[in-house]
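Running log. JK asked me to keep both predictions on one page so they can be read side by side. First protein, sequence followed by its tokens:
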Amino acid sequence: MIVRIAELEIDPDRIDAYTALLAEEIEASVRLEPGVLFLFAVSVKENRNAVRVIEGYADQAAYEAHLATAHFLKYKTQTADMVTSLRLIETDPIAIEAKNPISS
């Protein structure tokens, strides 16, 4: 399993448009890609422009396939000018458990 954390900073004037595109991309990825195990997007409470995405993929091939999908490429293209910084953090999973997600 591959787990990454993406730390993004979003242009404050574009945060609503960004979060709508991110939600659309996450929904499509989880629904359409068997190798995408989970995608969780949150914003930092004191700074909603600080977005964090926790990503889980079955393996490296699933991650690479995800990057080539039409829905991911649409998200990257349409949000490119909204993202002011992006840092990807590689992790070593220790323990991962989840109940059914709560809809927002």
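And the second, directly underneath as requested:
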Amino acid sequence: MKIEIVSIAKKEKTIYDPLYKDLTKMISRFAKVEDTEVFPKDVAKAHTISPKASQMAYTKALNGYISKDYSVTLHPDGELIDSYEFSKLLNAKISVKFFIGGAYGFEDDFLQKSDKVISLGKLTMSHKIAKAVLLEQIYRGFSILSNHPYHK
């Protein structure tokens, strides 16, 4: 199985990189994880204009990543699900793409292109922390599907 995480983010080293690496290694027995960070000049410019312009720039930047793969977008207004429901997003799929937006979230048009829109919770978190939580939930989801005791 292939998991791709596509996020609006600047490619830079962070204190979270070792955590991402550890979680990706844990997931590797179940799936290959690809992490794609996108932050074109259009996004940077749109941030100086308005939240709506930023959302439009995110859509433009991410549209090329929408494909036939099952797509899950993380959004504050998305469905709140538990880890067991999350595991069902991974079950019997060949490929799943997760989308993490920028500071201003997503346009409705982009959300409608997703197969599923979920929320990681009511708390606001940076995309770097959201990615760490997402990776952990991916590992937990695979653990649930394989009856591995990690999820207990």
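Observation for JK regarding the second prediction: The longest helix spans residues 127-145.
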